[in-house]
UniProtKB/TrEMBL annotation, chain A:
Residues 123-419, 452-662 form the NADH:quinone oxidoreductase/Mrp antiporter transmembrane domain. The chain crosses the membrane at residues 6-25, 32-51, 71-94, 106-123, 129-147, 159-178, 198-222, 234-255, 261-281, 293-313, 325-350, 371-396, 408-429, 450-471, 483-502, 514-533, 553-576, 613-636, 648-668, 699-719. Keywords: Cell membrane, Membrane, Transmembrane, Transmembrane helix. This is NADH:quinone oxidoreductase/Mrp antiporter transmembrane domain-containing protein. It holds the Pfam family Proton_antipo_M. InterPro entries: CPA3_Na-H_Antiporter_D, ND/Mrp_TM. It comes from the Bacteria. Belongs to the CPA3 antiporters (TC 2.A.63) subunit D family.
Amino acid sequence: MLDPLALAVALPLLGALLVTMLPGWSRTLGMLAALATTGVALWLTVIVWGGEGLRSDLGGWGVPLGIALRADGLAAALVAMANLVALAISINATGYFGAAESSRKFWPLWLLLWTALNGLFLAADLFNLYVMLELLGLSAAALGALTGTREAAEANLRYLLVGLLGSMTYLLGVALLYTAYGALDLELVAEALTPGPVAWSALALMIGGLLLKSALFPLHFWLPPAHANAPAPVSAALSALVVKAAVYLVLRLWLDLFDGIATLPAAMLLGLLGAGAVLWGSWRALRAERLKLLAAYSTVAQVGYLFLFLPLLTATPDGAERERLLTALVLLALTHGFAKAGFFLAAGLVQKSTGHDRIRELGGAAQSLPAATFTIGLAGVALIGLPPSGAFFAKWVLVGQAIALGQWWWALVAMAGTLLAAAYVFRVLARAFNREPTPKCFLTDPRTEIPALLLAGLGVKAALVPLHGWLPQAMVAPAPVSALLHAVAVVKAGAFGIVRVVYDVYGVEFAHDLGLLTVLGVLAATTIIYGSIKALSQDGLKKRLAYSTVSQVSYIALGASVLGPIATIGGLVHLVHQGIMKITLFFCAGNYAETLGVHRVSEMNGVGRRMPWTTLAFTVGALGMIGIPPVAGFVTKWYLGLGAASAGAYWVIGVLLVSSLLNAAYFLPILYRAWFRPPPEHWPKEPVLSKRLETAPALLWPPVVTALLAVVAGLLAAAPFSPLEWATLIAEREYGR
Amino acid sequence: MSHEILLTQLLYGSAGLLFFLLGAWSFISHEPLWRKLIALNIMGAGVFHVLVAVAYRGLDTPPDPVPHALVLTGIVVAVSATALALAFGRRLDREEPEQTSDIQGVDDREDGTHA
């Protein structure tokens, strides 16, 4: 009997061992392990999706002696998404690292990180959580230092030591619990736990240790220097991912294990520390002299917001209100993850191009680095919590519930923090925008700017498309990998974003009554048209695709804004379809750049003859984007149109028509060039790859397969487990009752 | 008899807690990273001490195996973490840090600039 729970942890671990023993085969073996793990994770998800939660005692040893793994709905969802993203990273890593020395170092660490991730989600006992947390920390620290620079080593050493202090404290808490109750299993301990000195000490030790890892004021001391001195992508990953993982565990313990033990005064204490973090972090950010230090202190403040939720959660009885608070909490964490990752990447760009990141001397940065400055602005919107960012919705719920419970002081803290955040963000922007003349070109270095931009944009859009926390791992991956991931990210956004925010937080009817849906719809329609027009004027292939993503993502919001089940299906299914098609296009763009050195649309004459398979895949993706049957994009637009007509929102059909025309206008010229223009005599870069295939197999197969998927998803839209079926299920659950 | 067990456990357990506190104090009050690393290992020893004390059930009864397993796992984790920290420290101690150019080289390649 094969056990998907055990395999999900064992397979990447086995892979890590194999690639360590046979470094010459690391790519092949690593890919095999990645594929197998993802397969198992999806299998696990299908099982949990179809029935009850899974639980398995390893080796047949029951509790309290054995080690148990379990998967409830949430864990399964997280596992599925984390693994899909990890697979995409792996596929691209094969093409990206090639056979370089860094590939051999990358694979073992990456697979270990993957093991720890799956283990953390599935662990059912306190001690396993400790082991997985340590494994995650160790492999993250090592991966972070992969660049080999001194700064990276120093930052990661400091993080490692503080992380160890935190986990030792956590472990002492575990030892206390075991002494008193003789169990480690989360459920068993939760049942046996009674209020008393032991439970309180354990609570204090465990939560305290994790607070150190999540850098809550006044235990934040290690974060600003570590995050500000590390290389920008590492800081982005640390701020967005590692800190969040600890916060996640705090919540899990607080809500699952110590529910009932954690008294209101204890929650108040954490809330108070959170308030201190919000005010102190924001104040220090306001006074910071360097851009990255500002971002790091802002992280301290943002973690504080998350802890403001705890006293409210403890005081709110189970029910819709509590669910709404939890959703807002998760939303805030995600928004901050994206915004801060984007902010750090942009700060890195500023530092790289100007040689420093002193805020005082930023004058004219907006002129020389428009995209980076725009990114900081976008991220700032999310950090302040302006609409339409996810932070706005989260803070709205926070303030509303604080006042409803009579704990109005948290609302005051949140508002003061918002004002301070506005002050520190505008301080940067005011410096950046004070010189003439205006720049000629928006993007100066698309390869590095677009990921930052997209991240910040996602932060702002998180209300429309919040992903869950694993995307920031993309930052561990090299730049093109992350560009690719944004396409996948959009896929994941849907189920968690639209459904959670518009439906769970507000409820469709309520949101409609508020007029929220109309605002959302108008914003979405504007974004669709704006993104399409911008895409039309881009010569860089990846730039054009990026603007196209901006436009396409808003279809999802458009679907959610039209009140009615059919348009909802259209919007949701678009999440998946758009992801498949856009990933195809990004893969192809990468292949052109990698094989022929073609980066611009104007260089694409005749690429169809040189690289027929890649171009075929690109064609399928592009046709799908326009919405031509039988590609998946057609299903989406059909449902959106039908839904709009049945809800009487005829203006949506107009938007669909105009945007489809624009899509055709920016994709068809590319296809015309690729297939019908004669190729140039010399490509910008002559391929030295295999003679039989048009490019390296690792680069060729992904787009061909995803293009095939796009057609299949369109043709077999009514088949079980197709994206359309899933979306219909979700829509029925929302509107059915 | 049970009195002796209790006393032994109490002694070992308190010694473990004392270790933990000493290590924590040393970690917080000393700046050099090496001292912090040593302090961490002392804290770890303290926690393991407590767990070993918990496992003791008298001379006639075999000890509880679960805490022993925990201690063994904990030691492995602590050793790995210490090794990684030492590796980082060695990198830091080099006067001229070696520039590993793999990653940068790959970065260039994607952009096609090296060609």
